[in-house]
Task: inverse folding
């Protein structure tokens, strides 16, 4: 019996295939859990793209974009713009200052007040980074109707009560989790 020719074997690297589809769960808790997984995976994927493209973390990129948009902003203003604690903003700035993407200036009557400015190195990083700089979740939330946001806020509040979540964690950017 003659040998049958073998099909050519591909030498390409295996592609990352998505997980095989799983039947949609019928339990409401399982369906909601899947939605949370999808949200977290979308956020994680965006921050990984930021890291690959820009070479800095998502929270640092967001801080850099705020400083670019608001030259001479102070640390307190940066914390307010990012809705994070001032000490968290200071920690983000340390890395940006060390990488020379941001510079500090003291001016005006109160010489203690530090003003922040983006440097040319910081501008180059912003140019090559994918947006949105604040992350995909804040952007998506901003596009929701006010009624939907209010309902989501109330419902997540109930979930947080059940979790007995530490409210201080709300001031930590998702990119740092």
Result:
């Amino acid at each position: 019996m003659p040998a049958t020719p073998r099909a050519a074997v591909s030498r390409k690297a295996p592609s990352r295939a998505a997980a095989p589809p799983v039947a949609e769960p019928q339990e409401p808790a399982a369906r909601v859990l899947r939605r949370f997984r999808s949200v977290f995976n979308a956020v994680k994927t965006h921050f990984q793209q930021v890291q690959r493209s820009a070479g800095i973390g998502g929270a640092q990129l967001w801080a850099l974009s705020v400083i670019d948009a608001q030259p001479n902003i102070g640390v307190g203003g940066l914390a307010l713009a990012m809705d994070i604690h001032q000490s968290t903003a200071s920690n983000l700035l340390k890395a940006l200052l060390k990488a020379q993407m941001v510079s500090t200036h003291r001016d005006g009557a109160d010489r203690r007040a530090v003003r922040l400015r983006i440097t040319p190195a910081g501008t180059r990083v912003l140019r090559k980074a994918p947006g949105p700089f604040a992350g995909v979740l804040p952007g998506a939330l901003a596009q929701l109707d006010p009624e939907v946001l209010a309902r989501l806020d109330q419902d997540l509040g109930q979930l947080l009560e059940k979790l007995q979540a530490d409210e201080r964690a709300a001031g930590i950017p998702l990119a740092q989790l």
Observations:
- Confidence is low (pLDDT under 50) at residues 1-15.
- The first strand starts at residue 102 and ends at 106.
